[in-house]
Amino acid sequence: MNIGFIGLGIMGSPMAANLVRAGHTVVGYDMSADRMDALAEAGGKAAGSVAETIAQAEVVITMLPDSPQVEEVAFGDDGLLQRGRPGLIHLDMSTVKPETSRRVAQAAAVKGIAALDAPVSGGERGAVDGTLSIMVGGRPEDFTAVRPILGVVGTTIVHVGPSGAGQTVKAANQLVVGGIYGLVAEAIVLLEASGVDPNSGLDVLAGGLAGSRILDLKRQSMIKREFTPGFRIDLHHKDMGIAIAAAREAGVSLPLTGLVAQLIAAARAQGHGSLDHSALLKVIERINR
Length: 289
Ligand code: NAD
Hints:
It holds the Pfam family NAD_binding_11. Belongs to the HIBADH-related family. With about 290 residues, this protein is of the alpha/beta class. It has two domains: about 160 residues, NAD(P)-binding Rossmann-like Domain (Rossmann fold); about 120 residues, N-(1-d-carboxylethyl)-l-norvaline Dehydrogenase, domain 2. The strands form two sheets. The protein has a six-stranded parallel sheet with strand order 3-2-1-4-5-6. A three-stranded mixed sheet has the order 7-8-9. Strand 2, helix 2 and strand 3 form a beta-alpha-beta unit. Helix 10 packs antiparallel against helix 11 and helix 12 runs antiparallel to helix 13. The site of nicotinamide-adenine-dinucleotide has 27 residues, from helix 4, strand 7 and helix 7.
């Protein structure tokens, strides 16, 4: 397929490279020119603008930081809705507000363009390995059309409902992930303060009921205080805001989510916004100093 790929950051770059490797023609664009080098090296083509990326595409994937960037690419003068031909499918794999996905899908439909929200979980590792979990909102027939593409970048791929539903599932994912990081951080602080080796302590936890992908992949780097992103605190802060807004809209109270959101806000306020979200450990440590 001819795929346009907009947003070649930590996640987008390896995802686009995997699509090239699977035999797709990928034209990519990122507002930072140096972000396009990796795509060219992988065999894709770098474009000079959003419009150029869209020109030949049957499917346009966006992997952008937040709602304003997705809205700019969708609604901008040179954007998807102005330049896209009827029949085009916009597959937004960024994590944004459900409301943004619904607004884009409604406006796109008027132009004969299909739009799906398909946020992902699995981190940079999952993007590199092509093993992401993907939660998709939108029309079932559009999901069926892009299913082969999603199968290149992910392994758990579920159509979860209409437009915006993918983002709601992602919000649920992010509050769980944030909570687990917070509790792993507290476990490390407790073990170290008690004079117990956190390596052997967390090895045992990883094999029992407390085991999780986060413990498997991140316990060693957390114990060593290595916080290179990965997934930036700034982005998780954005996601907790989305989760809290979704809870308000649904009329439910999520008290633990509120607490985790405040801890992530503290990490940001302490200047750790560009570190990996496992740097939540720094906040728990500071509370205890
Ligand atoms: P990133 O900041 O590394 O990449 C985003 C890229 O978008 C950057 O290279 C930036 O230059 C580019 N960009 C921004 N505005 C643009 C525009 N208007 N036009 C073209 N390019 C533009 O972020 P990331 O970590 O790759 O995350 C991307 C999305 O995926 C976010 O919504 C994030 O929440 C989500 N996500 C990230 C991870 C992770 O582990 N990093 C995991 C799951 C989901």
